[in-house]
Design brief:
With about 280 residues, this protein is α+β, with helices and mostly antiparallel strands. Helix content is about 30%, strand content about 30%. The strands form two sheets. Strands 7, 8, 9, 10, 11, 12, 13, 14 and 15 form a nine-stranded mixed beta sheet that branches. Helix 6 crosses helix 8.
Length: about 280
């Protein structure tokens, strides 16, 4: 595997991480996962823009211009002969003697590489199960930070119960999944939590809002309660690598009749079409 390290593409075996990298010690950094279709990175501009925003919010300055970084990513895809799957990209604040506070002149560290391919088509087709859990994360969930401790704890809990995702609830309101955004459909209207500090504004989420608009589907960025989740006609979760995944059971109870809903199916198809259009017209 070839890895992008601070502007250079090298073999994985050549990558060295310093024990005082602040990403390693504190989770002091930010990341992105970008999906590649047919060798083309989907919504690359949006992901890179979010990466720079996350970095800026925690005072990390990335050493590369965004156009330079985008070119490096395209090169990385080529060098790995990558056709489809996720590409992981992270930036840490850099290496410094371990203290909480930091000097502003340390140089950030960037690493990117292809993730192992995860086949999701069966989950997309049959739907998945989920649990609900309290959202006990910090109040800056809009930053795509490396600090994923609570997300990991709760995802593991879902996994150990044979579920795909845990849906997080804060003050009675559904925020998002541990690694996804959550949508419900009730009486033909699609709802999702507004893009505030309480959720990560998913790129898939943002793309879908465009897709709903194009198709004339009614949607509202409006908070909904646990009860509204459990009484929804349809529920689905979205993320870069999983795309649009129907949720057919929550906390052991069927969503509606326990099968993926018809509007969810249409949304999946419309999203796939958008991916196809945008990745076939883009220059790889
Ligand atoms: N929320 C959280 C907490 C996530 O980790 C993710 C996946 N990175 C998402 C939402 C979905 O974001 P995206 O569509 O950009 O992958």
């Amino acid at each position: 595997m070839k890895v992008l390290v601070d502007g250079e593409i090298v073999a994985r075996s050549a990558v060295k991480v310093d024990m005082e990298d602040r990403g390693y010690q504190f989770g002091d950094g930010v990341y992105e996962v970008i999906n590649v279709y047919d060798g083309v990175p989907f919504t690359l501009d949006e992901h890179i823009e979010r990466l720079y925003r996350s970095a800026q919010e925690i005072g990390i300055s990335i050493n590369f211009e965004s156009d330079h970084l985008k070119n490096d990513i395209r090169k990385l895809i080529q060098e790995n002969d990558m056709k489809k799957g996720g590409l992981y990209l992270q930036v840490t604040r850099g290496v410094a003697p371990r203290t909480h506070q930091y000097l502003k002149d340390i140089s950030s560290k960037l690493v990117a590489y292809p993730l192992p391919y995860k086949e999701m088509s069966e989950s997309r087709s049959t739907g998945v199960t989920a649990i609900t859990e309290q959202d006990l994360r910090w109040l800056r969930c809009d930053i795509k930070s490396l600090n994923l401790l609570y997300n990991i704890m709760i995802k593991q809990k879902a996994y150990e119960q044979g579920c795909f995702e845990a849906i997080l609830i804060r003050d009675g309101v559904v925020t998002e999944g541990t690694s996804s955004n959550v949508f419900i459909i009730k009486n033909g209207t699609i709802y999702t939590h507004p893009a505030t500090n309480l959720i990560l504004n998913g790129i898939t989420r943002q793309k879908l809002l465009e897709v709903y608009h194009e198709n004339g589907w009614t949607f509202k960025e409006h908070p909904f309660t646990t009860q509204e989740l459990l009484e929804a006609d349809e529920v689905f979760v979205t993320s870069t690598t999983s795309e649009v995944v129907p949720v057919i059971s929550i906390d052991g109870k069927d969503v509606n009749d326990g099968r993926p809903g018809s509007l969810t199916r249409k949304i999946q198809q419309a999203f796939s079409l958008t991916v196809k259009n945008e990745t076939s017209s883009a220059v790889g």
